[in-house]
């Protein structure tokens, strides 16, 4: 940083930089560093809104220009949130079997692949008779799915998608199976009970039907989840 020619300093002496000047210099250095390492076209958290500003979907911050956003990506807040997101997805088993964390589709998209439309589906509301937990059961039909391919599923938060304004009360259940289009369903933003018998998916290779059941946690499931043999729920 050039400290010469500052008010109250001798030529060549280098005056003391102000706090604002130091911060501006730091942001400029971070911006130049980000320009060398980040491709905004591939950044899943970069979003340009309708008023021309730039948003970070991960940190929920707004920036006036690309340089400000790039400097933000090198800051402590963004790097901390990236580490937290990576740890959460690793804990939940995401990022495997072709799943790509942070992308809307949730799967690796093959180039030059001709899509043949959406798969057929049926949604049924279910409830556990013992814990009274509410859930959803999905049935999908993939009659022309690619040979040797099984549908893939992913649960996505409201802040990862770009189709509409994020609503923290909802999350998205995403399913993909080539060559069909990837589709998503808006579901309540409740924690999913992943215990055996509660959450499952199964693909019928003969009938090409894919079944997924999601059961949401409630106070009863948290209280009695570890108890062997639950008493029948109240009618």
From TrEMBL:
In its UniProt record, a GO molecular function of this protein is: nucleic acid binding
Q: Where is this region: Disordered?
A: 1-25
**GO biological process assignments:** spliceosomal complex assembly
Q: What Pfam families does this protein's entry cite? A: SF3A2, zf-met
Q: Is Oxidoreductase found in the keyword set?
A: no
Report what the protein is called.
Answer: Matrin-type domain-containing protein
Main subcellular location of this protein, as a coarse class: nucleus
Q: Which PROSITE patterns match?
A: ZF_MATRIN
Swiss-Prot/TrEMBL keywords? Metal-binding, mRNA processing, mRNA splicing, Nucleus, Spliceosome, Zinc, Zinc-finger
Q: Which organism does this sequence originate in?
A: Amniculicola lignicola CBS 123094
Cellular localisation: Nucleus
The terms describing its cellular component in GO are: catalytic step 2 spliceosome; U2 snRNP; U2-type prespliceosome
UniProt family annotation: Belongs to the SF3A2 family.
Where is the Matrin-type domain positioned along the sequence?
A: 54-84
